[in-house]
Specification:
The complex is a heterodimer of chains A (325) and B (304).
Chain A: H1 11-26, E1 30-35, H2 37-44, H3 46-51, E2 56-59, H4 63-74, E3 79-86, H5 94-107, E4 113-119, H6 131-134, E5 140-143, H7 148-158, E6 164-170, E7 198-201, E8 208-212, H8 214-227, E9 231-235, E10 238-240, H9 244-254, E11 257-264, H10 269-280, E12 290-294, H11 313-323
Parallel strand pairs in A: 1-2, 1-3, 3-4, 4-6, 5-6, 8-9, 8-11, 11-12
Antiparallel strand pairs in A: 5-10, 7-9
Chain B: H1 3-25, H2 39-48, E1 54-57, H3 62-67, H4 72-79, E2 103-106, H5 113-126, E3 134-139, H6 146-157, E4 162-168, E5 171-172, E6 175-176, E7 196-201, H7 205-223, E8 227-232, H8 249-255, H9 261-268, H10 272-295
Parallel strand pairs in B: 1-2, 1-3, 3-4, 4-8, 7-8
Antiparallel strand pairs in B: 5-6
Helix pairs in contact in B: 1-2, 1-9, 1-10, 2-7, 4-10, 5-6
The chains are: A alpha/beta (325), B alpha/beta (304).
Amino acid sequence: MSKDPWFRNRLIRDASYRAIYDRMKVDPSIYIMGEGCHMKIHFDAPQIEKEFPDRFITLPISEDANTNFAVGMSLAGVKPIVDVITADFLYRTMDSICNTVAKSNFVSEPKTIIIRSEFLTAGPTTGQRPENLFTHIPGLNVVIPSNPYDAAGLTYTALQEKAATLFFEDRMIEDKTTSPTDMIDDSSHPSIPLGKASIRRSSLRSSVTVVSYALTLRMLQILFEDENVDYDLIDLRSIYPVDYELIAESVIKTGALLIVEPDITYSGVGAEIAAEISEMCFRHLRHPVKRLGAPRVTIPASRKLHEYMLPSEEKVLEVAKELSK
Amino acid sequence: MNLLPLYQRMVTIRIVETRLQELCFKGEAGDLHFSKGQEAISVGVCAALRQSDYIVTHHRTIAHEIAKGSALRPLIAEVLGKATGINGGLAGEMHISNPTIRHIFSFQLVGTCVPVATGLAYALRYYKKTDDVVAVFFGDAATSNGQVHEALNIAKIKSVPLLLVCENNGLAGNIRKEYYLPTETVAERMAAYGVEAETIDGNDVSLVQANTREAVESYVRPESKPLLLEMNTTRLCCHKQGQGDIRSKEEIAKLAERDPLLPVEQKLRLTQEQKERIWSKIEMEFEQILQHVQKDKWPTWNPN
């Protein structure tokens, strides 16, 4: 679908737009809006531009009012998809997301609203991952797919749930590493319930459960295939709600849990899962739960320095091996 | 123009708020935000709107809810936190959402109502394709908030049918306007956005009604454009119950000479006896409702 000339990774985004386009065809209440919206639709979703020219609304660079504008539209029956472009810009609209979107769905009949943004890595304020902040706010679901199939399936679902969903697109996941089984074609209409994780690798001999999402999930998938190790690998897909049932089921079998996050570990979803699983599966754990992820530092601009932001493959294998004992 | 129903509605607001204030002091209600002295605005504007038009409001919203035609029992139940309230006790006085009378939402956070109302007005005109309009109420102090200015920008660019009602009481909570308003009027700031604006006396309910009708029917509805009516008014109560007032008793007494009920009583030529009959009828109605509401069930909840 995309003819965006400047970005290399677009399979996940294309799959999301495919799902949005399919739903727009059957649901006239779906509108896309946000700053620079016309530019984005023009390059990312030309079919939407051609067929639904009245259903995307280009708004000024006023993120906070734009999200509240979307809430106003939802009060008249519209299902808004708000494009906030880069995840860092979400800080500009924290008030309208946390105080208006989440609370209006609490006080009155819940409405469908999706807030989309993507992760980039271009330095201190264009490379942050604020996804964990939103898991603390009641009334918000937080979705981060690791592959095109999940992106389409979760978009379909989010557009049919009477709930507010933050939908993150990880632009750092490289297209060339996408497995053919995770692709979508014109005939596929995947539907994935929110809050259901997926088992990416599993075996009866597994000695460690590894939980991750988005960028690090993709990294581990390739690493574990290459190394041919017997670890269960779970893709959270949504960091709120978290599929504790699936994680616990695996941990009871393996007796060890490692959480690998692409985000800062401090106060992250990994801490929450570690606490919850320690309570749920205490007697089944051979080792304390381990977490790996980004240090609590500001993201630097240099591509070279990004290597320090994520755990290395060697570190992951070393910790997993220790836990498998 | 029949003034009597407008007077009755203004008196209803006055009585409900006065009685709720007494309940605050008894600990039966929280620290509520009242509109004493500003009743002509909500009543006059809502009287000029169609029933199908929408209002979006701020934290001081018991007046708007009554003015738009809410039944008193679910309103009082909501303010007192009962299960029988408009929103089952989840909203309280500051987050009321009552779609049945099209008082679609009220927002405690200052300024939020304006962009939400802008989006609603856009959707009514360009998605639902109705000719309903939205009236959004906010204070003069809200114009120091970025959300209001971001929304004005969008409202003008997107050409939405939005009546902006600025209730100018010269106060931001308990702070005087030299601390937040750099201009003489709010209306003059609208020039920056190319939004039509006018300043009127907000304590004259007939004038409020007539100006609103004129603005809505000759401009906002047919042209689908935003317009601001700045209504100068007097808040005769403190910011919220349980808080002192920065103003002296003498200052408030002086402002009370502009009490919006007085000119209506004069115009209606009410005798003391007629006036007492109107008031005691509404007071009795309130007492009956209160007795029911006090026996109503508390909400129950199972958050997990």
